[in-house]
TrEMBL record:
Every RNA polymerase sigma-70 region domain range: 20-79
SUPFAM superfamilies for the chain: Sigma2 domain of RNA polymerase sigma factors (SSF88946), Sigma3 and sigma4 domains of RNA polymerase sigma factors (SSF88659)
Gene3D superfamilies per UniProt: 1.10.1740.10, Winged helix-like DNA-binding domain superfamily/Winged helix DNA-binding domain
Residues of the RNA polymerase sigma factor 70 region 4 type domain: 120-170
Family annotation (InterPro entries): DUF6596, RNA_pol_sigma-70_dom, RNA_pol_sigma70_r2, RNA_pol_sigma70_r4_t2, RNA_pol_sigma_r2, RNA_pol_sigma_r3/r4-like, WH-like_DNA-bd_sf
Name assigned to this protein: RNA polymerase sigma factor (Sigma-70 family)
NCBIfam families: sigma70-ECF
PANTHER family noted in UniProt: BLL0085 PROTEIN, BLL6612 PROTEIN-RELATED
Gene Ontology terms, MF aspect: DNA binding; sigma factor activity
GO biological process, one term: DNA-templated transcription initiation
Every DUF6596 domain range: 188-288
Organism: Silvimonas terrae
């Protein structure tokens, strides 16, 4: 195997196994920052040795063992320091003292438990949302600081500072490496699910930049969601979120054209939707339903996505069912964005005048004043009503608010279409 191939193999193993390694070390050391540092040391050792000795038969186990040895060395060193500082151990064998406190036996626990607990630590409510996202992607997504910075279009030092602050905050708060108590689980689980879905949404519809989508972020969010669904299988909203992400991800190939430009939902070639992902999503939604969680916010959104997935053509979409689901969502998770999405369903179910009335009621909503989709949705309704001059202005307003270049191009193109509609028709020769 060439050196390049070896490095690629190391990178692939690290991307898959790093979360498990860091989780195991965090349980040993009770310090997520130190755990990440020592896991990185194991990666460096692999980069130095594998090109000479070849890739081991079980590279994941090799990395885990190397990381554990680094952690044990650190623990023994720390223990020796403690013994010296306290002037203890003169009458005892240091090895016996270490054996009594050595946590190596605890490493026999299932590694996926470590991943789950690490996920709950990275998404702990003591951290601000931006810190949770950065730390989750770094520890569990296996992304580099540079990759995270490019994904969210912020400078790399900003992401690095967020990660450092997050680690310090967790250390200062002495967050235990354990699953939260039963009474605290809903709050903590909600934080975890919110971070995963935030990551997915940034990949599904990028906030800014040259790309309409960032598939790598969608993939990472789906991977984390699937891990969580396997490890917290009794919680319905976990399956609701997975169902939502699976079904939305199924449209990825149909959402952009050959030039990377957006294709709106009703214009997509549904033959290009990934029906395996749709089926996985519907199965996850059935699990949420079986657990009594059909009215959870993620399950309700997954139900809406399922209505689209089951329709072979846009005309077959059950828009009245979607309206009913949005009504329920507005009850359990009220927000201006939910109301805006509901307005789209109202337009499709009951006509553009009804949709426009719902949108007009949101015009003074403070949270939507800089939200580009408010004028974009209003523009679409005006276009459907033949009010092309007003629609053009609204599309241009929406274009001025978005920071995503393909989306801006699409909105300006729709504004141009409105302008063409306003041109006088040429005389025809009979």
């Amino acid at each position: 195997m060439t050196q390049l191939a070896t490095h690629r193999a190391i990178e692939a193993v690290w991307r898959i196994e790093s979360a498990r390694i860091i989780g195991a070390l965090t349980r040993m050391l009770r310090d997520v920052g130190l755990a990440q540092e020592l896991a990185q040391d194991a990666l460096v050792i692999a980069l130095e040795n594998w090109p000479l000795t070849g890739v081991p038969d079980n590279p994941a186990a090799w990395l885990m063992t190397a990381a554990k040895h680094r952690a044990l060395d650190r623990l023994r060193h720390h223990k020796l320091q403690q013994l010296k500082h306290a002037e203890l151990g003169r009458d005892l064998s240091i090895e016996r003292e270490l054996a009594a406190t050595d946590p190596i036996d605890a490493l026999d626990n299932p590694v996926d438990d470590d991943v789950l607990q690490l996920l709950f630590i990275a998404c702990h409510p003591v951290l601000p949302p931006e810190g949770r996202v950065a730390l989750t992607l770094r520890l569990l997504g296996g992304l580099s600081t540079d990759e995270i910075a490019r994904a969210f279009l912020v400078p790399e030092p900003t992401i690095a500072q967020r990660i450092v602050r997050a680690k310090r905050t967790l250390s200062a708060a002495q967050v235990p490496f354990e699953m939260p108590q039963k009474d605290a689980l809903p709050e903590r689980l909600g934080s975890v699910l919110a971070v995963i879905y935030l990551i997915f949404n940034e990949g599904y519809a990028a906030t800014a930049g040259d790309d309409w989508m960032r598939p790598a972020l969608c993939d990472e969010a789906l991977r984390l969601g699937r891990i969580l669904a396997g490890l917290a299988a009794d919680h319905s909203e976990v399956h609701g979120l997975v169902a939502l992400m699976e079904i939305q991800a199924s449209r990825a190939r149909a959402r952009i054209d050959a030039h990377g430009q957006p294709i709106l939902l009703l214009e997509q070639n549904r033959a290009r939707w990934d029906h395996l992902l749709i089926q996985r999503g519907l199965t996850a939604l059935d699990r949420a339903r079986a657990l009594g969680g059909l009215l959870g916010p993620y399950a309700l959104q997954a139900g809406i996505a399922a209505c689209h997935a089951r329709a072979r053509t846009p005309a077959e979409t059950d828009w009245q069912e979607i309206c009913a689901l949005y009504d329920a969502l507005a009850q359990v998770s009220p927000s201006p964005v939910v109301e805006l999405n509901r307005a789209v369903a109202v337009c499709m179910a009951f006509g553009p005048e009804a949709g426009l009335a719902a949108v007009e009621a949101l015009q003074d909503e403070p949270a939507l004043q800089r939200y580009h989709l408010l004028p974009a949705v209003r523009a679409d309704f005006l276009f459907r009503l033949g009010r092309f001059a007003e629609a053009a202005v609204a599309f241009e307003r929406a274009a001025s608010l978005t920071r995503n270049i393909p989306e801006r191009t699409l909105l300006l193109a729709r504004a141009q279409t409105c302008q063409h509609k306003l041109l006088p028709k040429p005389d025809t020769i009979g």
